[in-house]
Design goal:
By secondary structure, the protein is an alpha/beta fold. The chain has two domains: about 190 residues, Rossmann fold; about 100 residues, Orthogonal Bundle (Helicase, Ruva Protein, domain 3). The strands form four sheets. Strands 2-5-8-1-9 form a five-stranded parallel sheet. It has a two-stranded antiparallel ribbon with strand order 3-4. The protein has a two-stranded antiparallel ribbon with strand order 6-7. Helix 2 packs across helix 11. It is globular and about 70 Å long.
Length: about 325
Amino acid sequence: MPNGPAWSQKLREEISLAVIGQEAVVERLLVALLANGHVLLEGMPGLAKTLLVKSLGSALGVQFERIQFTPDLLPSDVVGTMIFSPKDGTFRAHHGPIFANLVLADEINRAPAKVQSALLEGMQERQVTIGGQTHPLPSPFLVMATQNPVEQEGTYPLPEAQTDRFLFKLLVEYPSAQEEALMLSRWGQVTRSPSVKAVSSGPELIALRSQVDAVHVAPAIEAYILSLVRGTRALTVADDKGYRLLTFGASPRASLALYTASRALAWLRGADFVTPALVQEIAPDVLRHRIALTYEAEAAGQTPDQIIGQVIDKTAIPPL
């Protein structure tokens, strides 16, 4: 069974055949796979978010399904519905595209809240209900959703109850000049799509999670994680001047997410214990979608990442 760096390297090399750059995002996607958590990717159109998730599914060798969210989508288009069988006069459950190992919810904020909420039971419980009957989803099961910035036309912001169920919110940025030039030279003169072959599998991923569970987290690191998360809640209290930065802080689910994600990142980099530096590095991806800025903070030009950085700076680092 491969170790963390070896497993990461073979997947990265295969994904790079289709996606150039985005190294940090690829690493976070691998961390989410190991931590059994869902991912929300945000970025402008054309930044290869869909291609990235599709290439990841191909490199893992798991069943992949893509759902294009549109304003006229129905919940049954996601989870499935009951179909009448004329032969025997009974109804049977028809599974929707959510019954896959890796589900890409493309442009999830293009659909109304009723459709967005159809993912909730599947994401949290790993099961869906069709016609009053519960149907378990395959294992492994992960949702990787893409969304356009909420300032764009025709978008429906995700409710807090749903964003909190994502392990990460990753911001996909424009490629560098060198990466974009390499993209042109590699694919500008050909019409075929890049091919990605399977270099791992679902059973291997599940087996590797037992190695991640063996990564040591010291009590001091656990206390540090709690201090960071609770530090965001302290910013919901107004200061002496009546000014506060956040309307609400990170939930207890954020503490669990930061714990599991830090451990997965440590294993992926070949470490057998979690350090404060790893917690600090991954904290913005875990927390940025779990806090809400006040109007005053937004008017002052503050961003979630800046506020998380302030919390990190003010929180005492435990000794190794």
